[in-house]
Write a structure and sequence with these properties.
single chain; alpha+beta; four-stranded mixed β-sheet; 12 helices; 8 strands; globular; binds flavin-adenine dinucleotide
Length: 391
Amino acid sequence: MDLELSAQDLEFQLEVRSFLKDNFPEHIREATARTATVFVDAGPALEWQKILVEKGWAVPSWPKEYGGTGWTPTQKYIFSMECARAGTPGYNPLSLSLLAPVLFGFGTEEQKQKYLPRMLSGEDYWCQGFSEPGSGSDLASLKLKAENQGDHYILNGSKLWQTHAQFANKIFCLVRTDNSGRPQAGISFLLIDMDTPGVTVEPIITMGMDHEVNQVFFEDVKVPLENLVGKEGEGWKCAKYLLEFERGGGSSAHIRKAELDHLKDIVADIQSRNPEFNDDLHYSKTIARIEIDLKSLEITELRILSALAEGKMPGAESSILKLTTVNIEQRIHQLAMDVIGYHGLPFKQDDIGPDYASTVVPTYLNSRAASIFGGSQEVQRNIIAKAVLGL
Ligand SMILES: Cc1cc2nc3c(=O)[nH]c(=O)nc-3n(C[C@H](O)[C@H](O)[C@H](O)COP(=O)(O)OP(=O)(O)OC[C@H]3O[C@@H](n4cnc5c(N)ncnc54)[C@H](O)[C@@H]3O)c2cc1C
């Protein structure tokens, strides 16, 4: 495969760079850089999203008739690479990157017409209701009961770990509509209004002291039958399709590269402030190792890009990406913790120590969760063993 960008692609890259330089506001860049959690708060992210919508670049992966750009996979890769370099926030990826493909693949025309424009405009903010107490890796064991009552379902049970459910006005859920056969065959995919009577959200505060995740309870919640995506019992098929996008299909090497560059700046700053700082080659060696792994991550992403360019889906290889990017992310944040030392102690206080110290510890703590969400590292290894290595 050819890893060099063509003259046209290089020209496109310059166009994207110049757009970002002229249109990406500094206050949004700062808010994004200060964010330790996976998702940037809806406010600044939505402000940026609106600028992208106006330009027509908000959802490059969507089909053109719904607002997509019609770019080639290489152009999409370049765009996401340049956005990572510039430090732009992603807006509600649970809807734009995960739910939208499911609607394209399985939704009715009415569902597409109703929900897609509202995702783009920010009128709807979605959260994802897959995991439950006792059903995470073993997702097929989920129990949230949805009884078909003719023209509606009645839901009882709960979902666990819903990211940003406190901001969301909608949730897409996997629910149990049948218990008789294989567990996977009794699962359906439902779209639910969060303000339906009987839906309640309880916050979960993480060890980084962030309110990012929640538990969502359903008590006799009435959901119209028209909110079913695909056929009843097809929820597993929709979920498998969606999870391939959650575990890859994008480009994360450049986000990690930006994090590593930030770490290098921190090391340089500490070295300049502290003449006794003795690297002992520890930091330089670790950074060099991370850089090598980052290069191989980038090559793997380009391999997948090349498959996408030929019209193939991101397959089980997306598990390799998830495994590798999380490993690199956690090593970068671990090293940042080592480097800042005692400056990390008063974490969450901006006015003590160098500016960057206030985000290092929360980012490190938050990054621990990356080996769990979107399918744990062990589960990714199982997928690679079976589907990639054929073991
Ligand atoms: C920060 C965060 C945000 C999240 N956001 C969302 C969200 O928005 N929506 C949503 O639906 N879910 C969300 N999740 C849930 C996430 O998808 C689950 O936590 C994840 O799938 C793991 O499930 P579990 O927590 O039940 O752990 P378990 O499945 O109980 O796993 C516990 C441990 O056992 C290991 N394990 C389990 N099965 C195997 C196996 N077969 N082989 C080897 N090891 C195994 C796991 O790797 C893990 O180390 C989020 C989680 C976190 C931490």
